[in-house]
Amino acid sequence: MISLFSATNPLLTWSPSSTPARTSCSQTHRWFCTSSRTTNALSFHIPFSLTCSRLTQKPNAHATTTLQVKGSSSDSKKEEQEEEYKVLTAVKSQYNDILIVDTPKTRMLLLDSTHNVHSLLYKDGQKWTRSYWDEFASLPAIIPQGPVAMFGLGGGTAAHLMLDVWPSLQLEGWEIDEILINKARDYFGLSDLEKQTQAGGILHVVVGDALCSLEDDSRKYAGIVIDLFYGGKVLPQLQDVATWLELKGRLIPNGRLMVNCGGIEESDAINERISTKSVDNAWVENPTIKVLCEAFPGQLSWKRMPEGEGANYLALTGPLPDLTSWSAMVPHHLSATVSKWRPCSPLT
């Protein structure tokens, strides 16, 4: 997920118990995903400088809300142009405050008061997001044949990518929020993934608590993608070694986990950077990776997304793959990024 609006200076004020609240902004804001210094949320820069001139609404919770803005894109040499940003739907479920925002180029799924983006869809046919969702599509190249689970399906951004690259993939997507799944079917094309591809691949959606499912030993996977957040932070259960050992037990031989570990807490960063002497040990800034190192000693790799792509930490279990071979097996967009993985070096 990506942090879209600053909680202290939001472009859009929304009361999930009713309808999108009316607001107006006279000053220019820089619309970007704030660096993950106060939460474990993914963050990355979105190249638009926005001036909010008016926000209008109808009293229907599902009405379209139009936000008039001026945007400057780096691709057009920052020439300002007026664009509309629309709220397509806003609804409160048992688990989330669901907000779907539409722009001329993208559609975004926001959840909870942190305004984090959990799914992203480009309308021009562009599939790559230049964020951590892309990285998940590299996992099938280095795991055995078998089903792949996704814990934290959201709107299905990563699922779209994985089935596009690997059309025979048997993907099982877990999401606790049934209302969110229905919205993803309506607005993010999730239902298209639930139809079998010509190569036999398909997404099977499972509505339920993915971590509670660990008690079912009959479900085994070649790989598990883990993208579980609440309130902008990695789930507390994922700070427990026992949870990771249970997840390890859900893998077939030579199976792997790939995990979105989010960012870092500001207090953690201050303390850990003092003791971090090498970039090879930068992973100690992330508490989730530190727990994973305990659960998978000597069998964990990590990478950090570039600042312009979120600066999120990712983790991969199992021995470090041959990066040259891995690079050759994935699309060109991913071939350079997989070379950035490195083993978690022992601290000295």
From TrEMBL:
- Any one of the GO BP annotations: methylation
Q: What domain of life?
A: Eukaryota
Write out the entry's keywords from A to Z.
Methyltransferase, Transferase
Q: Which Gene Ontology molecular-function terms are recorded? A: methyltransferase activity
Q: Which family does it belong to?
A: Belongs to the methyltransferase superfamily.
Q: What is this protein called?
A: S-adenosyl-L-methionine-dependent methyltransferases superfamily protein
The protein's organism comes out as: Salix udensis
**Organism lineage:** Eukaryota, Viridiplantae, Streptophyta, Embryophyta, Tracheophyta
